[in-house]
Design goal:
By secondary structure, the chain is of the alpha+beta class. It has one domain (6-181, 208-368). The chain is 20% helix and 39% strand. It is built from 6 helices and 17 strands. It has helices at 126-138, 147-150, 232-237, 251-254, 266-288, 346-368, and strands at 18-19, 26-30, 35-37, 44-45, 57-58, 74-79, 85-89, 105-107, 118-119, 152-153, 157-192, 195-225, 247-248, 258-260, 293-322, 325-332, 338-340. The strands form 2 sheets. Strands 5, 6, 7, 8, 9, 10, 11, 12, 13, 14, 15, 16 and 17 form a 13-stranded mixed β-sheet that branches. A hairpin with a 6-residue loop joins β3 (35-37) and β4. The longest helix has 23 residues, at 266-288. Mean pLDDT is 83; it is low at 1-15.
C-alpha cells in the first residue's frame, strides 16, 4: 500500500521566514498561485515578478568582485552521506538532507559563494508532483506488477538546483580535410554457373584536399549544471526548462524550499561550456565548407566578451522503497516531467522475449510456405 511519511519532512525545507501580514506566521511560497500563502490563516500575498537581474556579469571580473556574493546571513550545510551542500539562512537548522534523506548534516566554514541572480519559481506543487509520480510509476510495463501496490514512498522535498549560463563571442581559425565524391567506370569479370561474363559499373571514390579559413560565432546562454548531487541521466530526462520564465531571485520564492550550493565553480563551468561551444563551432564549420565530407583536423578558438549568470532551477526530489532497495526519482518543478530509477521484472522481460521469438518463427514459417 502506498504511503507518504509526512512526519519526517525535513525542517531543512523551512529556509526563509517571510511573515504573514495577517497573523504573523511564517508563510510559504505556493506554486499554484505563484505567491506566498500562510498555512495558519490562509492569507495570501502576491509576489511581484521583476527582471532587473537579467543583465550579464563580466566573467573576467568575477574573481575580484565581491558585489555579487550571497548575503552574509547565510550558512552552508553539508550532507556527510551524499556530499550535497545547501544554502540556508543563519537562523535555520538542517535536520535532514533533501537529496538523500540522511540526518548526517554538518555546518561548514564555506561561504555561500556567488548569489543567484535569477530563478524559475516552482510551478508544480508538492501534491501535483506526487500525482505525476504515481502516473509515471503506473506507466512502466517492465516494472514488477506488485510494485504499484507495495512500494513505500519516502519524503519529497523541493530544491532549487544551481546552474551557470555563459555568453561568449568566438573567433576560430580552422584547417579541414575536404572530400568530394566522383565516379569511375570499372569493368570486371564475374563467373556464374561456370561461365564468365563482363560487368561494367560505376564505382564511387573520394578526392581529398585541404582547406583553411576563419569562423565567427556568438553563443548565448550556454547552460551548465553546477550540481553533482542528482544523477545526470535522471536530470537530463526531465529537461528542458523553459528559461524564458526566469525571474529575479527573491527570498519569497525560497520560502519553504532550499537552494543547493553550486559544486561546479564558475571557472570549471566555463571550461565545460567551452567544450560545448567548440562542438557547435565544429558543426558550424562543417556546414560552412563545401564538400561531401568535411573533417576538422585543427581548430584554434579565441573566446572574448565572456559573461555569465548564476541561476536556480526547480526540482522535486524523492525516492521509494521496494524489496529492500531504494530508487530515486525527480520531478521537474516547472513542467512536471518525471524521471527516476525503478526495478525491472525479469519474468516480464523473458516473457516478452519468448513471445517475440515465437512471433518471428510463425512469420518465417508463413513466408517459407
Amino acid at each position: 500500500m502506498t504511503s507518504f511519511d509526512e512526519q519526517q519532512q525535513p525542517t531543512m525545507e523551512q529556509t526563509e521566514n517571510i511573515k504573514c501580514t495577517s497573523c504573523g506566521g511564517n508563510t510559504e511560497y505556493h506554486p499554484e498561485t505563484r505567491g506566498l500563502k500562510c498555512p495558519f490563516c490562509g492569507n495570501e500575498q502576491a509576489i511581484e515578478a521583476t527582471y532587473d537581474q537579467t543583465v550579464e556579469l563580466d566573467f573576467t571580473a568575477a574573481g575580484d568582485s565581491r558585489n555579487h556574493l550571497w548575503q552574509e546571513d547565510t550558512r552552508v550545510f553539508q550532507c556527510q552521506n551524499c556530499g550535497a551542500e545547501s544554502v540556508l539562512q543563519a537562523n535555520v537548522v538542517a535536520d535532514f538532507c533533501s537529496f538523500c534523506g540522511s540526518s548526517h548534516i554538518s555546518i561548514t566554514e564555506k561561504d555561500a559563494g556567488i548569489q543567484p541572480g535569477l530563478l524559475i519559481p516552482f510551478q508544480i506543487s508538492q501534491d501535483q508532483a506526487l500525482d505525476k509520480f504515481k502516473e509515471w510509476i503506473k506507466g512502466h510495463f517492465f516494472a514488477p506488477t506488485e510494485l504499484k501496490k507495495t512500494y513505500r514512498l519516502h519524503k519529497i522535498s523541493g530544491a532549487y538546483l544551481p546552474y551557470w549560463t555563459y555568453d561568449s563571442q568566438t573567433y576560430s581559425h580552422y584547417v579541414v580535410r575536404v572530400g568530394n565524391y566522383y565516379y569511375e567506370t570499372v569493368t570486371h569479370t564475374v563467373y556464374e554457373d561456370g561461365k564468365a561474363r563482363q560487368v561494367t559499373e560505376q564505382v564511387q571514390k573520394i578526392r581529398w584536399h585541404q582547406e583553411s579559413g576563419n569562423y565567427e560565432q556568438f553563443f548565448d546562454d550556454v547552460l551548465i549544471k553546477a550540481s553533482s548531487t542528482i544523477e545526470p541521466k535522471l536530470l537530463q530526462k526531465v529537461q528542458p526548462f523553459q528559461l524564458s520564465s526566469l525571474t529575479d531571485y527573491k527570498l519569497e520564492y525560497m520560502s519553504g524550499f532550499l537552494a543547493e550550493r553550486y559544486q561546479t565553480s564558475l571557472q570549471q563551468g566555463f571550461t565545460e561550456a567551452q567544450g560545448m561551444m567548440k562542438s557547435g563551432i565544429t558543426s558550424g564549420i562543417e556546414r560552412k565548407v563545401a564538400g561531401d565530407i568535411v573533417q576538422v583536423v585543427n581548430l584554434s578558438t579565441e573566446f572574448t566578451d565572456i559573461t555569465y549568470k548564476h541561476i536556480l532551477l526547480p526540482i522535486w526530489i524523492s525516492s521509494f522503497h521496494f524489496n529492500e532497495k531504494v530508487y530515486q526519482f525527480i520531478v521537474n518543478g516547472q513542467t512536471g516531467k518525471v524521471s527516476g530509477n525503478y526495478p525491472i521484472s525479469v519474468m516480464k522481460v523473458v516473457f516478452l522475449t519468448i513471445s517475440v521469438l515465437i512471433l518471428l518463427f510463425i512469420v518465417y514459417l508463413f513466408i517459407d510456405s
